[in-house]
Amino acid sequence: MISSMRVVRLGDNVNTDDIIAGRYLRAASTDTWRDHLFEDYDARLRSRLSSDSVLLAGANFGCGSSREQAVLGLKAAGVRVILAVTFGAIFQRNCVNNGVLAATYELDAGPLPEDGVPVSINWAESTLEAEGVPLIRWHLPPLQREICLAGGLLAFYRARRFSDGASRPDAA
Amino acid sequence: MNIIDTILSSKLGYLPAAEDAFLLPVDHILAHDGSMMLVERLFREEGLGNILEPEKVFVAFDHIYPANSALTANLHRLVRAFLKDQGVTRVYEGRGISHQLIWESNTVSAFQIVVGGDSHTPSIGAAGALGIGLGATDIAYALLTSTVWFTRPEVCLVNLTGIPPEGVEAKDLALLLLAEAADETAGRVVVFRSAEQLPADWRFVLCNMAPEMDALSAVFEPLGWCPSSAERFEARIDVDLRTLARRVALPHQVRNVALRSDVSGGRPVDVVFIGTCTGGRLSDIATLTEVLKQSGNRLATRLVVCPASSSIYQQAIEDGHIGYLLSLGATILPPSCGPCLGQSVGILGDNEVCVSTANRNFRGRMGNPHAEIILASSRVAAECAVGGRL
Prior knowledge:
The structure holds 2 protein chains of 2 kinds. By secondary structure, chain A is α/β, with parallel strands linked by helices. Chain A is 24% helix and 22% strand. Chain A has helices at residues 16-19, 30-35, 69-76, 89-97, 142-150, 153-158, and strands at 2-9, 53-57, 81-84, 101-105, 118-122, 127-130, 133-139. A 7-stranded mixed beta barrel of chain A has the order 1-2-3-4-7-6-5. Chain A is globular, with a radius of gyration of 16 Å. In chain B, 33% of the residues lie in helices and 21% in strands. Chain B contains 14 helices and 18 strands. Chain B has helices at residues 3-12, 33-46, 70-85, 98-104, 136-145, 170-180, 182-185, 200-208, 260-263, 276-279, 282-294, 310-318, 321-327, 378-387; strands at 21-25, 28-32, 57-61, 91-93, 113-116, 130-133, 147-151, 155-161, 189-194, 217-220, 235-240, 247-249, 257-259, 271-275, 302-306, 331-332, 353-356, 372-375. In chain B, α2 packs across α3 and α11 runs parallel beside α14 (378-387). At the A-B interface, α3, α4, α5 and α6 of A face β1, α2, α3, α5 and β7 of B.
């Protein structure tokens, strides 16, 4: 359970150029990506992101470029949870591979919580809750869930969670 | 089985169930200066050790090349030293764009798996291979293990019939599909099937724009592929190429597509850009010079041409295209991604409009959020360069 979080709503088709513009990609430090998040998309958005934030996006979030700087910047800003109707496939992998929960939800599951609503993430039930009441049921395939919970792909690799030489991961 | 299941089962030794997760062995690992910069950092900071099979690695310095700043040059130095230290020999600097170069290398065969640290890795689907675009951590994992985690994808068949009208290009079909069929292609691998033999450049462009179709990847069925009767497709789209018309993608979303005939003569255009992994091949440059010559050698906009590889550049010189374009005042850039990603040359000014043969027109993509990018085929882009208007 991750509690005491607040919703930050985002629209459809937010691409990774929107998350971090190309001119900032070549940088020696992750701080650059953290500091310039969403700069051309919505300059007021950056100041609202913290370790409390649950990004609640529409369809196709993180589409476009494979730039992992988008996830590294969000993670450096504290973001650990992103829920979207659908994701750009590479962005979602990049999130999971960095231990950031990036899960999908059904749009017709009821009214979405507004900006700033206090919420918590229930891993056991795969829900987003407000005051113990589930608002959204999210979905993440089993292997991705394991990688995410391990803290990312390299932590997963180090823990030898894939059996040596076999093509099937020993996912529970 | 469809071609995707055939590829997966030949790699794994079994056919995975739907949504089954597995480690997929890969044949080639593609990267460029941009993604390799993050991979090098991961190896250095995380102490990851050695690349398992350096001979599978193919790296092109294409995103910012030559370097535009001391910072970029120093990141290039780190990548260069890392690749040398790791025994990677397929390293290309100044030769052009990674997707074009691995295609030209003729080292990728049908049914192989190519993973790449770039979203346009599906381009190699033109060769009947499955190209999967990934981020830096996945590429690091692939370098360590020669595998990536993957799940059995859904597949969308795009069945093409007929011969397209004169003056219509693969870009027009890609724009049609991404604007009108994204519900079918999203999250799936697109399999292109054509009754007629389409030019290699068509196959390349269609597979290249898989990410713009929100697809996981795209593969063109290779010559001689015999579909079995028990093929599984979660979606199917039929396109009669005889009905295909010219299209453009207006700012600032790729799927903001309009028929060329509905917007022609409209807004003034400041610069035309012919280049990138989508539209920087010899056929694009040849189309450009053909249109300019037919129009009395008139050029009403700035014109920037960036061949996708040095062999394309060389051939364009030998065919007389480059000399002709220079005589009209065009700017010829070295083989690279060039202005497409707004990180080095060719940044747009405020309120400027660029008609580009690239694959993305996101706000700020070409380095300035106050500029506008319109995507088009090389023929439509060339016509804009002549007329000065869309």
